[in-house]
Amino acid sequence: MNVGDRHFRTIWVNEDGWGVDIIDQRWLPHEFRVETLRDVKATATAIRDMWVRGAPLIGVTAAYGMALAMRADPSDTALDATWERLHATRPTAINLKWALDGMRSFLRPLPEAERAAAAYRRAGELADEDVELNRGIGRNGLAVIREIAGRKKPGEPVNILTHCNAGWLATVDYGTATSPIYLAGEENIPVHVYVDETRPRNQGAQLTAWEMAGHGVPHTLIVDNAGGHLMQRGAIDMVIVGTDRTTANGDVCNKIGTYLKALAAHDNGVPFYVALPSPTIDWTISDGLRDVPIEERADEEVSLVWGRDADGEVRQVRISPEATPAANPAFDVTPARLVTGLITERGIAAASTDGLKALFPEKVAAA
Predict the structure, then answer these.
(1) So what EC number does this one have (predicted)?
(2) Which residues are annotated as catalytic?
(3) Burial of 241 (0-12, 13-18, 19+ CB in 10 A)
(4) What is the rounded average pLDDT for all residues in the chain?
(5) What residue numbers does the annotated binding site for substrate cover?
(6) Residue 145 pLDDT more than 70?
(7) In the chain, ranges of CATH 1.20.120.420 domains
(8) Residue 366: pLDDT band with limits 50, 70, 90
(9) For the structural domain made of 140-366, what CATH number should be given?
(10) CATH topology of domain 2-129
(11) DSSP-assigned states of every residue in 222-271
């Protein structure tokens, strides 16, 4: 996608041929910064501290982290140590393990002298594959937007509610939940996006809103608790969110607060869709509440917020008493029964074991 008049992906190889450049998302929307990762330590920090975030992008970043590791030390010991170090950074997003497993299996049989070059090549392929997966999600999700638009008055927008950021910043390009929205714009289908702020890290306010503004998508920022109110008044035509892990039976683990949006949508008859590439499906589990590990992050993310002050300085301020502790579960699980459909690169699946089997029979057989 474009930033100004220049196309960017969220991650790419530096012009030196080996460093890995990322958009450092901590500074958005106030500053656009590019950071260069040059070792595994920096890669782990970038994932853990959310310089990069979003399940697909985390996976690709980890793949490039493996390439950086092989450049420094292509031994089996380093291969396994890198897997362990990067896997420990973010426990919920299954794409991280998927990418690390794939890279290790790909590199293990190769001679050590060939591993670094092969790792960079394979990481680049995973990045390209992610872009194509997201384009497929966009095409399939566009059909839903197009159908809703067909029932509206001429010129009346399709009103879409999002939660967190499942845009191109969460992937390599296009995004998952935003890909259908961007394609709708290319077809001149009028849309309007209600952007949840998404406390505590405000990915909606800081990232999704920045994306929408940059691409000229009509949008309105709302506080997290306004979604149900808007649904009660018929102001929302559909909800579309991303996911960090989807179980084999269609349970969805996404940013904290997603479950409440799904409950409100169910109560008001609003379609609730989840957009995801197939690597986000965890075929090994079928009970999201029981089996998906929920990341607990630092309480400072709840107690402190970043913003730009009246003098134009980006600074952090406290919003709660210093003596007050805070809990910070980063994700929640939305049961499959509340999900209207899972928008994947192969089509839209019912949020059920049978629905996923129909689209991905080979995955089920392998599992």
Answers:
(1) 5.3.1.23
(2) 244
(3) buried
(4) 96
(5) 53-55, 90, 203, 254-255
(6) yes
(7) 2-129
(8) low
(9) 3.40.50.10470
(10) Four Helix Bundle (Hemerythrin (Met), subunit A) (1.20.120)
(11) E-GGGHHHHHHTT--SEEEE--SEEETT--EEEETTHHHHHHHHHHHT--
